[in-house]
Amino acid sequence: MLERIKDPVDQIDLYPAQTPAASRTISVVICSYADWRWDDLQRACVSVLEQLGEGDELVVVVDHNDGLLARARSEFPTARVVPNAGRKGLSDARNTGVETSRGDVIAFLDDDAVARPGWVTGLRTAFASDDVAVAGTTVRPNWEGGSAPRWFPEEFGWVVGCSYRGLPEEKTTIRNPIGASMAVRRTIFGKVGGFSDAIGRVGTKPVGCEETEFCIRVSAHDSTYKVVFDPFSAVDHYVPAVRQTMKYFVSRCYHEGRSKRIVSMLQGTEAGLSSERKYVRVTLPSAVIKGVTGAVRRPAGLLRAGVVVIGLSSTVLGYVVESLHRGQVTVGGH
């Protein structure tokens, strides 16, 4: 089992050497935990199996659910279906997928997301350069009901695990991708370890940031490593009605603040909040101004502007509460 990381460490490289880009194999890891998400899991697996080439594979990791494990093994005989060998939660489920898989590149897809045609090829191409350590793609929301609530601001797409206004619109380097659709060069895990179980989702509790902490650790290990974003490859991430409520919105923002505080404590606030500073200084004020100035023609814009303020306030509150909980009320330092 990959070591559950609390702080950056160097490890012996136990993984195979890099291979030419055209022949790099892809292992797609999908983690699942709940029987009620079975239909979503089926769609996710089918979307991947249709794209796999020679040497590629699908690995399904079931998080402490024996019934779901047996059902998945029966339904997907060509996939490698295994139980989470670590602690309950997404971080160790992903670590189990890394240990179980064999590909040169390990891609992670949420069990309620569907890979669009060309997704696997796009990720394979992203690793053509040997200095690319991590790659991510666009994550488009697939709203139950057909569209987002009128009050939902596009700048908060991350609340439902999707891309959001403010992300790059061309291929470029970023701090970290969205975890619903990301890939990591196998050799990287041998150098920095796996995903930290100090953060990350367990069941339906709306926490996260394990991919953020991981990518910061990768960059800290070697500044020449690149984390890249390809907006032209995409997955569709299902957003059920239960996640389209203000209650969920506020809760998710609050727990994001808590998660960001933990990341800052593990990796320092400079790295832990580097992307968030621009987001707060530029993206969110722009959203508020746009909503207020366009309120005459589009009254819903004023509502969305108010939700932006609520979302930011809830996130800051979570950050502060986590700081108080850990006895650290200052923003600086570890």
From TrEMBL:
Q: Report the superkingdom from the record.
A: Bacteria
Q: Does the keyword Transmembrane apply?
A: no
Query: Which pathway, per its entry?
Result: Cell wall biogenesis; cell wall polysaccharide biosynthesis
Domain Glycosyltransferase 2-like, which positions?
A: 27-192
Q: Which GO MF terms does the UniProt record name?
A: glycosyltransferase activity
Q: Which keywords does UniProt give here?
A: Glycosyltransferase, Transferase
InterPro entries documented for this protein: Glyco_trans_2-like, Nucleotide-diphossugar_trans
Question: SUPFAM superfamilies under this entry?
Answer: Nucleotide-diphospho-sugar transferases
PANTHER family hit by this protein: GALACTOFURANOSYLTRANSFERASE GLFT2, RHAMNOSYLTRANSFERASE WBBL
Family per record: Belongs to the glycosyltransferase 2 family.
For this entry, the protein name equals Glycosyl transferase family 2
Q: Which organism is it from?
A: Paractinoplanes tereljensis
